[in-house]
Design a protein that fits this description.
Elements lengths: L2 H14 L8 E3 L2 E4 L2 E4 L7 E3 L1 H7 L2 H11 L1 H10 L21 H7 L12 H6 L8 H4 L6 H25 L1
Antiparallel strand pairs: 1-4, 2-3
Helix pairs in contact: 1-3, 1-4, 1-8
Length: about 170
């Protein structure tokens, strides 16, 4: 799973007012949504997780839960603001922009088929960087572009830290 998606999903939830840093869940290793079990990477679970602990531990169950609360579109909006869905100029020929799925994207991409609806069960996987999400440049720092990618990611991590600090001061 992509840690950058965790950050984006967290920022989306904070921006939409759907979650706060203190909101917590109990991770026992899996949670059922829409009659399907979604598993955490840690089989026995992480125990109680708030936002900070979920980011530190990459707790899938926390991000599944929060994504179901907010839906896919806020995640897409924040992911795009972080640069997902764009070509990263790291000097490698043939790069393609990634895909940032949303309800509108799915309607357009699958136009003319029966698969235009965003199904609620798609959202938990999306929140941890799986499904239709493609993160070309953001996911693969290579050769000379690696330092630029690391610097770019660091700026986003610092921005999230500042946002969290602002929410904690306001609380």
């Amino acid at each position: 799973a992509s840690a950058r998606i965790f950050v984006g999903a967290s920022a989306a939830g904070l921006a939409e007012g759907v979650i706060t840093p203190a909101d917590g869940i109990f991770c026992n290793g899996a949670k059922v949504f829409y009659k399907r079990a979604f598993h955490c990477w840690k089989a026995g679970g992480h125990g109680f997780m708030n936002l900070e602990a979920a980011l530190k531990n990459s707790c899938d169950v926390y991000f599944y839960t929060m994504s179901v609360r907010m839906g896919p579109d806020p995640i897409a909006k924040v992911a795009k603001s972080f640069g997902f869905g764009k070509v990263f100029d790291i000097g490698i020929p043939g790069q393609k922009k990634g895909i940032v799925p949303s309800t509108d994207w799915k309607k357009e991409y699958f136009k003319g088929t029966e698969n235009t609806r965003w199904w609620p069960g798609e959202t938990p996987s999306y929140a941890i960087g799986q499904g239709a999400l493609q993160v070309e440049g953001a996911h693969h720092p290579v050769f000379g572009g690696a330092q630029r990618q690391i610097d770019h990611r660091h700026r986003h991590a610092v921005a999230l830290d500042r946002a969290l600090a602002g929410f904690q001061r306001a609380a």
